[in-house]
Specification:
Length: 201
């Protein structure tokens, strides 16, 4: 269930910073841009990766200098593994470790067992004890944590209609029309036409 941020919590009049509604719009715009970067821009970041790795495998070219107007702006370098020793024969090395007295036998409960028991756990309405709802058996070592408490995080959901993100579209339309310039005046990096500041990289 969604709620308008401004309606859900009244703004703190004593707070000199942006009100919750403004922060909500800033967060929504930033989220839309991040999703755009993830879908459209991020794949371009590593566009050179596969061709450069192929070049290293075929011709040992290990780096690529990027120049703009004759000036170097950066360099791609193929990451390479370091030489090291690893265990190749587990049984042989286990026998060697046991011979040296460096072998531990560790017993741990199966994760599948724990998941199944927790899924069947319930509280006895009369005693409050935690029992297996299939067998009625008392389950030791468990406690019940009631839900409903804030976790410290928030979840964002775009308004959609028939699978289309109409909320995001409306937000970005407003952004590019200039309707949000006043709201985003303290965060100009989110305004259309802004470019990243190299000093923040």
């Amino acid at each position: 269930m969604s709620h308008d941020v401004a309606d859900a919590v009244p703004a703190d009049e004593s707070n000199s910073g942006p009100d919750l509604h403004t922060l909500g719009i800033v967060g929504a715009v930033a989220r839309a841009m991040t999703e755009h970067q993830t879908a459209i821009i991020a794949p371009k970041v590593d566009a050179v990766k596969d061709p450069l790795v192929d070049a290293f495998l075929t011709s040992k070219q290990g780096d690529l200098t990027v120049e703009v107007g004759g000036e170097e702006v950066g360099r791609y370098t193929v990451s390479k593994t370091r030489a090291k020793f690893v265990v190749d024969d587990e049984a042989a090395f286990d026998a060697y470790a046991e011979e040296k007295g460096e072998y531990d036998v560790v017993f741990v409960r199966k994760p599948s067992f724990e998941a199944a028991v927790l899924a069947r756990a319930t509280r006895d309405p009369e005693t409050g004890a935690i029992v297996d709802k299939q067998t009625g058996e008392l389950i030791p070592g468990l406690k019940f944590l009631p839900g409903g408490k804030p976790t410290g995080g928030v979840r964002w959901t775009w308004k959609t209609f028939k699978g289309e993100p109409i909320g995001k579209n409306a937000l970005m339309d407003a952004l590019f029309r200039g309707d949000l310039h006043d709201v985003l005046k303290e965060t100009p990096e989110l305004l259309p036409g802004s470019r990243p500041d190299a000093s923040t990289e």
